[in-house]
Amino acid sequence: MITTEVTFDELAALMKQAAGITVDPKELRESAGSPFDVFGLDSLGLLGIVGELENRYGQSLPPDSERCRTPREFLNLINSTLTAGA
Questions:
Q1: Distance (Å, rounded) from C-alpha 11 to C-alpha 25?
Q2: Which of 2, 19, 26, 63 sits most deeply, having the most CB atoms within 10 A of its CB?
Q3: CA-based nearest residue to 18, from 77, 64, 62, 65
């Protein structure tokens, strides 16, 4: 059962790992309603993050995952999906 949520810290680490973009987790948290492109993340980078999360949790994520526009929207969708599938 998945009891933890994907955090802004983890998302920032995934952005670095999957897309080579360094973002301060605090800045990501404070600007969670800003579009991903403000942080330099494009749809291909977000797709890489989705793939990494699917591998990590052994669960498919919704097709809408890579269409999320903001970090807040993305984390809300991912976390609700992971906890629902737990």
A1: 8
A2: 19
A3: 65
Q: How many CB atoms lie within 10 A of CB 24?
A: 12
CA distances (Å), 3 to each of 6, 12, 29, 69, 73, in order? Answer: 10, 20, 21, 25, 20
Handedness of CA 67, 73, 74, 80 (dihedral sign): negative
| pLDDT one-digit tens code per residue, 45-71 | 999 999 999 999 898 999 889 899 999
- Residue (of 22, 14, 11, 5) closest to 48 by Cα position: 14
| DSSP one-letter code for 62 | P
Give pTM, 2 decimals.
0.91
33 phi/psi in degrees, rounded to 5: -90, 0
Ordered alpha helix ranges (H), 1-86: 8-19, 25-30, 43-57, 71-84
